[in-house]
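Hey team,

Filing this mostly as a record. A colleague (T.K.) asked me to run one chain through the structure pipeline before their review meeting, and I want the input and output archived in the tracker in case anyone asks later how it was produced. No errors, nothing strange. Just documentation.

Input sequence:
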Amino acid sequence: MLLSIIQGLFKTKTKQTMNELAHKAKAGDEEVLSDLLFAFTPFIKKTASFICKRPIDEHDEEFSVAMNGFHEAVMGFDSSKDASIQTFAHLIIKRRMIDFIRKEATRNEKELFMQADEEAATSEQYFLLDKQSIHTYIEEQRTATRREELIRYRELLATFHLSFDELTKVAPKHADARKTAFQIAQIVAETEEFYDHLMKTKQLPLKEIEAIVEVSRKTLERHRKYMIAVVLLLNSDFVYIKEYVKGEII
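Output structure:
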């Protein structure tokens, strides 16, 4: 019965009622939590697939990570601070997925070191392939990737008539203002209709944004260029550039 109600809410998009169900689950209602997890499964798959840039299903480890992220979002949801459980869940799932991807990358590097040690021990022809040479190679690859990301990001900004020099000038000077602008950019990046509007028109849907955030139109206009740059970064695959703003991401 409850599941059918939830499925009906997805069709009518009753944000307030969905938030209320999230609060019930957070308060300990196991039935509501179970039904929310089931009903949101397509959303969880879609979010995981979007982040991994490939299809994800129940058999993938990434799906388990995303499911745990949704559970964490329900347990940490606060309607007085977060726009909706779906938006908040998307942000938390994305953060957990990125953490998982980074851990996997680190594990693969360690395996590469171990493999190199084993090969070096069995044959003298591999004596140069020690940890230091592998580390140097990996660092060179990272440096090249960072350089490539910066070039691609600069080119992407240019299509919106933005540049690094200009962003340095228009970025919010105060930490609170920068945090607010960054969080609004996250909402835009994770809201399909807002993001589509930006990509089609090269402009933020300021009227729609103003309706859901407690920020004046004047402030939105002032930070418009900075927010566009952040949205483009968040929805990109620029892994190393994102490291610089990791502390800002919810």
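Quick notes for T.K.: The CA atoms of residues 184 and 213 lie 8 Å apart. The radius of gyration is 22 Å.
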